Amino acid sequence: MLFVEAKSARIPALGLGTWELDGRTCARVVEQALRLGYRHIDTAQVYDNEREVGDGLRSSGVRRDDVFVTTKVWTNHFAPHDLERSVKESLVRLRLPHVDLLLLHWPNPHVPLAETLGALAHAKRLGLTRHVGLSNFTVALIEEAVAASPEPLVCDQVEYHPYLDQSKVRAACERHGLALVAYSPIAKGRIKHDETLVGIGRAHGKTPAQVCLRWLVQQNVAAIPRTSRIERLSENIEIFDFELSQEEMSRISALAHPKGRLTDFGFAPKWD
Ligand SMILES: NC(=O)c1ccc[n+]([C@@H]2O[C@H](COP(=O)([O-])OP(=O)(O)OC[C@H]3O[C@@H](n4cnc5c(N)ncnc54)[C@H](OP(=O)(O)O)[C@@H]3O)[C@@H](O)[C@H]2O)c1
Question: Who's near 151: CB < 8 A, 6+ residues apart?
Fold first, then answer.
């Protein structure tokens, strides 16, 4: 497994996303993923599955210290006392003494960012998390957060796949030593029938999803694909035994288009 390094954090380059996984399916998929070699699990308070993620982790038999667990604080808990309380509740659900990475799930313009970042840093100093970071932050918000955060921020988790150009956010992350973690890394499954990815995959004996995930990790980006199917767990992690050429990387990057973004909400920031 490769790692994406940022400040003192070593983030396994391939993780398991768990949005929309729930109940026994969630616990079973997490358990199986860890048995197959995944060492990075991504959850969030708002996914309502932290309990099942913790169950899967325990039943996998993999040592806790060998797994990188991320959770995210939902935006209604950004006032300082709420943040600390909500993180402690997450840890009770996960049945863990700490997570590895704690993220602000989305920017929330209704609470001063400096206050929320102060509370996030406090959670780290209390030992509730090893690292802290951001999600869905734009270039301007990254700059503001880096300047205001009392503790080093290690990543920005944003939507990133071949159909969405994220070069501005990537450059900002690089400038500030943040890792980029790609969510919806296989464009919610839309890559499956992409002719370019199918063609490149054929040359390497790989599927479109594997080509897409390889394209991300070759950019030093971490990716957290989600699947509810056990057979796809193996498919999505078998990306460390081949390499895309510069020409193939460029052909995949050229798939980006202005309507490529899949996740957008009324409360989203003004994207770059
Ligand atoms: N920070 C944020 O705001 C945010 C937002 C969105 C997502 N995320 C995180 O990122 C994770 C991944 O993003 P996502 O769930 O939106 O989308 P994704 O991982 O890009 O795609 C998941 C979809 O692709 C299908 N799939 C999985 N493996 C496949 C393969 N090898 N070939 C073809 N199809 C495949 C899955 O179906 P099956 O289940 O049938 O395999 C599922 O429908 C989330 O689970 C969550 O942890 C974070």
Answer: 120, 121, 124, 125, 132
